[in-house]
Design a protein that fits this description.
The complex is a heterodimer of chains A (175) and B (575).
Chain A lengths: L15 H27 L8 E3 L2 H15 E5 L2 E6 L3 E8 L2 E3 L1 E5 L3 E8 L4 E6 L3 E5 L3 E8 L4 E7 L11 E7 L1
Parallel strand pairs in A: 3-6, 4-7, 6-12
Antiparallel strand pairs in A: 1-10, 2-3, 4-5, 7-10, 8-9, 8-11, 11-12
Chain B lengths: L1 H6 L2 E3 L6 E3 H32 L8 H36 L6 H23 L17 H30 L9 H31 L8 H35 L6 H14 L16 H36 L8 H4 L6 H24 L13 H30 L6 H27 L22 H34 L14 H16 L11 H25 L4 E2 L1
Antiparallel strand pairs in B: 1-2
Classes of the chains: A alpha+beta (175), B mainly alpha (575).
Bound molecules: protoporphyrin IX containing FE and copper (II) ion (CU).
Chain lengths: 175, 575
């Protein structure tokens, strides 16, 4: 009875069905544990958390320089930059816009630097449903290879004030 | 006789035979009442949110959506749940151990702190000066009173835990019980220990935020804040799990006469919670910058999976103990004859049974899967997250606590329910609603629909975007499920308030049974016999039905888990 005090020595090893279930559950837990390091070595999608400390102003300057050097167009007042051949690219999240729009090449590998100059934001690339946390003070580096082409919208999925649901952006991947 | 009865400080429960001290009874009552008060606040917020996330309705405006979201999270996850847990702590120490509480003064002080803290927090949120959501992630800043309110509440809860431990100590010292503490007390102790650790983390996150909000400290680091905040946020969920499982065991005994199959296994599983859950807050930071892969894998998997193991053990032992009880009553037909004969019309039982099913099959499976380091990339901050936790903390913990209230009111408030047939359907209404809402959320999340976002159409954004029409249909499922759950919750609140304050008194009588006389008699019989036979083996009664159930569970788990890995493999390469 769960509401009464058990008397004497109640220690007992699990037996029968109970023991079988504990064993089975433990095996499953171990499989799930191994899956993560396994995917780290053999899988292609990992969140490494690579990041560097950065001052908001410095990051903003780096983004400005990146835009100046690569801008090709503008959508709704947001600069569009084209980087056809891999390498470092920048994305700035701030209330309430992702900048710039990135025009990338399919199959290239980019080092995406993403940070915020105000609040926390959530980088969410749709419809792929790739999501990363973006924090002020952290230059979060995501090494990504664009394996599919098309237009991918970015939204913000971390609450960042009353205009949070206006915070969008775009990545265009060309063949 | 007269002068003696004036000093009598306890009564003997006519149903359980337990000694109920009036003083602890008083604190059980007032904490439970406050819990229901804040549940009502949270429920009104809930319906407004459901009707806003339902993208075809969008009832609130954006300012009030985020404000009400803050209100809902704080009242539900903090005030409702923790007040009920405080009531459970008083019950599990004083009533189950047959002792007075350690300090009445401390109990009063802590209660007042918690109520004042909760009122301050609610006031400042509704006044529009704390639109920061439950997590108040820096650099988002709330009015200092927001932090003051939450800290006051937390310190109050910490004092209740202290009072609890001291009560355990005096019970032991005064030998008010023999043998070991009952399993339910063991569960409550687990919850209290984790609560202390959680509150200390919370102080480390919120005290600096408070100092910053009054200009005495520089802005805290956003990443460090998240780490500390989730030391609070995650661990309080483990408090909820431990308390909920304790309620499962309690209600299994009360409603079916079940006895824990093996005290060693059940208690061992609680110990696993204490040992291994504490570092699992990592699974909220899986796609954060600044935390390394090794740290994340170790802290989510090694630790978390032993805690998962513990939940899987309870997921077996609770139904298995019921199966044994049912078979001992003679319901031995086939694999599931015992299952069909469970007291499904007893709202105390059905709440707890549905709680275990929703918690396990939806909450547990999604939680472990979404908390996998890499799979989290496809889930972080999407609607899959509220889809998951409305199955754990609402379909699981809240529903279990509702079931508890169907016994708490007659046993502690000593009043009977009105509209008993409504009470019998209430758990089903609530369970159906919350399951629909949770599935609607989870599936919408697979389209990338974000959580905590007012407008799923992003109207007014410079760069236009939106979702597949199917995602909007799923948000409709969320909305309808939310309305049903809300109705179920209001029915619950109406029933318990009417009973606790105005119900027909049942002093000096056995609690009126929720079951028929015959089943109640069989249950009572088992409870009495179980007490005498404590420590005996029950291996002669096998549990094939439960084995079948848990195997179905494991199969669902494995399928869902690997299906998620499969869809992860379709993403861009990320490193
Ligand atoms: C009638 C029942 C309920 C309904 C209809 C409901 C509905 C909702 C909705 C629509 C959201 C917003 C999701 C989003 O946009 O991100 C939400 C958030 C939330 N709910 Fe509930 N809920 C209910 C009960 C509960 C209960 C009982 C609890 C806790 C015990 C709870 C805890 C939360 C939390 C913690 C959040 C997240 C707040 C945040 O993101 O800061 N809910 N709920
Ligand atoms: Cu944002």
């Amino acid at each position: 009875m769960s509401i009464f005090s058990p008397q004497g020595n109640w220690f007992r090893y699990p037996e029968g069905g109970e023991r079988m279930w504990i064993g089975l559950a433990l095996v499953w837990c171990i499989i799930m544990f191994i899956a993560m390091p396994f995917w780290h070595f053999f899988g292609k999608q990992n969140a490494t958390g690579e990041s560097y400390t950065v001052e908001a102003r410095d990051f903003e300057e780096r983004v400005d320089r990146f835009v100046e050097a690569n801008q090709v167009d503008e959508i709704e007042g947001v600069p569009v930059v084209e980087v056809p051949s891999g390498g470092d690219i920048y994305l700035l999240g701030r209330m309430w816009q992702w900048e710039p729009v990135l025009k990338l090449q399919k199959g290239e590998t980019y080092r995406l630097h993403v940070s915020s100059t105000d609040l926390q934001h959530g980088l969410s690339i749709l419809p792929l449903n790739i999501n990363f946390q973006v924090l002020p003070g952290y230059d979060h580096v995501i090494t990504m290879t664009t394996t599919t082409s098309g237009t991918f919208d970015i939204i913000c999925n971390e609450f960042c004030g009353v205009g949070h649901h206006w915070m969008t952006g775009r990545i265009i991947v060309e063949e | 006789m007269n002068s003696q009865s004036a000093t009598v400080d306890h009564r003997i429960c006519n149903t359980t035979g337990l000694t109920v001290f009036f003083r602890s009874e008083f604190f059980i009552k007032i904490n439970a009442v406050m819990g229901v008060v804040f549940l009502l606040v949270g429920a009104i917020a809930a319906i407004l949110l459901a009707l806003t996330r339902w993208s075809a309705v969008m009832f609130l405006d954006e300012v009030w959506f985020y404000r009400i979201l803050t209100l809902h999270g704080v009242n539900m996850l903090v005030f409702w749940i923790i007040f009920i847990e405080m009531a459970i702590l008083y019950f599990a120490s004083s009533t189950l151990l047959n002792t007075r509480i350690f300090s009445k003064t401390l109990a009063h002080i802590s209660f007042v702190m918690m109520v004042v803290g909760a009122l301050i927090t609610n006031y400042i949120i509704l006044d529009g000066r704390a639109d920061v959501l439950l997590t108040s992630y820096v650099p988002l800043q709330a009015h200092p009173l927001f932090y003051v309110g939450i800290l006051l509440f937390a310190v109050g809860a910490l004092l209740v835990c202290f009072n609890y431990f001291a009560t355990l100590y005096i019970a032991k010292k005064n030998k008010t019980y023999t043998g070991s503490v009952p399993l339910v007390t063991f569960a409550a102790t687990t919850a209290a220990i984790i609560a202390v650790i959680a509150i200390l983390h919370g102080a480390m996150a919120l005290v600096p935020s408070f100092l910053w909000s009054v200009g005495l400290m520089a802005e805290p680091d956003a990443g460090v804040y998240r780490l500390l905040w989730w030391g609070l946020g995650h661990q309080t969920q483990q408090v909820n799990v431990a308390a909920m499982v304790g309620v499962w065991y309690f209600m299994a005994t009360m409603t079916t006469g079940a006895k824990p199959l093996n005290e060693t296994v059940c208690r061992g599983a609680f110990v696993l919670y204490i040992l291994f859950i504490n570092i699992a807050s990592a699974h909220h930071l899986l796609v954060d910058p600044g935390v390394s892969t090794e740290w994340k894998i170790w802290n989510t998997s090694y630790a978390m999976y032993l805690a998962v193991l513990a939940s899987m053990i309870h997921g077996y032992t609770v139904p298995a103990s019921m199966e044994v009880a049912q078979r001992r009553k003679g319901f031995t037909k086939g694999l599931f004859g015992w299952f069909a004969k469970l007291p499904w019309k007893d709202p105390g039982f059905s709440s707890v049974a549905l709680s275990a099913i929703i918690f396990g099959f939806i909450g547990g499976i999604t939680g472990v899967t979404l908390g996998t380091e890499q799979i989290n990339i496809m889930a972080h901050n999407t609607m899959r997250i509220p889809g998951h936790f409305h199955a754990t903390v609402v379909g699981g913990t809240t529903l279990a606590f509702m079931g508890l209230c169907y016994y708490l009111v007659p046993l502690i408030f000593q009043r009977d329910f009105y509209l008993r047939s409504w009470a019998r359907v209430q758990p089903y209404i609530f369970a159906i609603g919350i399951t629909m809402m949770s599935l609607g959320m989870s599936l919408a999340g697979t389209y990338g629909v974000p959580r905590r976002t007012y407008d799923s159409d992003f109207t007014g954004a410079a760069i236009e975007t939106g979702f597949d029409p199917v995602a909007h249909i799923l948000l409709g499922v969320l909305g309808i499920g939310g309305v049903i759950a809300f109705l179920g919750m209001m029915l619950f609140i109406g029933l318990v308030v009417a009973a606790a304050f105005f119900g027909p008194p049942i002093k000096d009588r056995k609690m009126p049974t929720w079951q028929d006389e015959k089943s109640q008699k069989m249950t009572d019989d088992l409870i009495n016999r179980g007490y005498e036979e404590e420590g005996k083996h029950y291996e002669h009664v096998k549990t094939p039905g439960t084995i079948a159930l848990v195997l179905i569970f494991l199969l669902s788990f494995v399928i869902y888990y690997f299906a998620n890995w499969a869809s992860l493999a379709d993403l861009w390469f990320l490193n």
